[in-house]
Amino acid sequence: MEEALAILEEFISTGVPHYVVAINAAKLWRMERDPRLEMVVRGAALLIPEKAIVIGGSILNLPIRHHLGGSMLLEAFLPVAERKGYKTYFLGARPAVSERLIQKLRQDYPRLQIAGWHDGYLSDEDDRRVTDEIQRLRPDALFIAMGTPRQEFWIANHLQALGTPICMGVGGSFDVLSGLKRDAPGWVRAIAMEWLYRLVQDPKNLWKRYLTTMPWFLHKVFRARLQELFSKVSP
Q1: Which of 42, 94, 121, 124 sits most deeply, having the most CB atoms within 10 A of its CB?
Q2: What's the total number of domains in the chain?
Q3: pTM metric for this prediction
């Protein structure tokens, strides 16, 4: 986490636009089926590994250091932004969620500079207006909660025009930070059951995603591991 926060601050110091992507099994599954999403993700300045990726990397002896997750990094960045005076902008989620989020942030981080916010339901006119507003306000960090792949495509389409040093898609994090949903406890994350915790909270919307992507991901990881082992014993 300390390294990731230092990288975000480095991005801000450059003033050059960067985008950050959190990687999980579901996103990898989508990337295999959507070349455009794969291209966008591969172009990110920083990739944040969620728990499944760390476990898969460990099985495959890859140098993936630690589980962060988009919501974890966002939550850790907020007190840094408050302390150092970084300007933030929040885009996404339902109108009621975004309004509740701003209220909660003002309560928890009274000195945080919130340059602006808007819900994620954008008409073409709204999109132009929000883009113009962000260009005018020049935040240091823009957090987009639209879900994958919409948030990644939105960032890719607007990054250079906005010029924001940090653009980061954070999925459903606004619901958690606003207090409308509970985040997974540390012990749940430690045993790699964050996906199950989320599934229990929202089975209607998540059951198909997890029952599809998790078996696919495990199959990919263990097949790659077997291929690695066979290559070592082959003459």
Answers
A1: 94
A2: 1
A3: 0.87
